[in-house]
Amino acid sequence: MWLEDVWPVSIDGRKVGTLTCASYSPRLEINMGYAWVPIQAAELGSRLMITSPKGPLSAEVVPLPFWDAAKDVPKA
Length: 76
Prior knowledge:
Elements: E1 7-11, E2 14-25, E3 30-36, E4 47-52, E5 55-60, H1 72-75
Antiparallel strand pairs: 1-2, 1-4, 2-3, 4-5
């Protein structure tokens, strides 16, 4: 599915931002995305609800798992 429009992001039913980019990571085997939210909603562990055209999706703010600062993936 293409993310042609931004999708609303909410907390406890209140819109707090928008999902601007989403993709599936074959290496991590997860869906991940970027959302514009206020700093209060961006704390690690914050639970968010994303409204997609196919229905609601739960999300959580997590550390960047796809950042490989030590370059361990190419060494494997």
